[in-house]
Amino acid sequence: MIKRDFKRFCVIISGPTGTGKTTICKKLIEKNNDFFYSISCTTRKKRENEIDGKDYYFITKEEFEKRIKEDKFLEYAKIYNEYYGTPKEPVFENLKNGKIVIMDIDYQGKMKVAEKLKDSVSIYILPPSIEELKRRIEKREKNFMERFKEALKEIDLWISYDYVVINDEIEKAVDEINKIIEAEKLKRERLILERIEK
């Protein structure tokens, strides 16, 4: 009899603002007990519907820069004059404990994580159309034209990722990502096979 297991890995989910990355990540966590969602730290202000420690860890710039010096981040970047970063310890701890780690990070973060964790899997989320992207950004962002122009530039980054998912329907996008992860578990280089004698 052959017992099969696999080496745990990180799944990086990126995409322009307004493509539904955060909602997709939350639904992935809801549907999978063996997934861990990596919560980022940020120096930006908390939005009305956000919860500290659930959506982000909201910290001061002084505290963020202190943690940079202490090498506490797996990756970090400055976006729109605010810091965003992935705490290192929870990622490695959960990989060690048998979890697949889901990260919602941008292209800069993806490049840094992929360099450090070479077996990570990257998935880029795209909107179903430019018109829909504009509508979504306009609905949630005050300075939406600036964000929309930035999102248009980011669309072409899909070519740097392992997989691309078009989010025209949340449940369908989540299902596609689950299928990608299931396939990745079966990759030869991840497999841990053990022969068990009866």
What does the model show?
With 198 residues, this protein is of the alpha/beta class. The protein has one domain: P-loop containing nucleotide triphosphate hydrolases (Rossmann fold, 3-Layer(aba) Sandwich). It is built from 7 helices and 11 strands. It has a 5-stranded parallel β-sheet, with helices on both faces. The chain has a 4-stranded mixed β-sheet with strand order 5-4-7-6. A hairpin with a 2-residue loop joins strand 6 and strand 7.
Keywords summarizing the entry:
alpha/beta; Rossmann fold; 5-stranded parallel β-sheet; 4-stranded mixed β-sheet; 7 helices
Walk me through the topology.
Blueprint: E1 2-6, E2 10-14, H1 21-31, E3 35-38, E4 41-42, E5 57-58, H2 61-69, E6 73-79, E7 82-87, H3 88-96, E8 100-104, H4 107-116, E9 121-126, H5 130-140, H6 144-154, E10 163-166, H7 170-185, E11 191-195
Parallel strand pairs: 2-8, 2-9, 3-8, 4-5, 9-10
Antiparallel strand pairs: 1-11, 4-7, 6-7
Helix pairs in contact: 1-7, 5-6
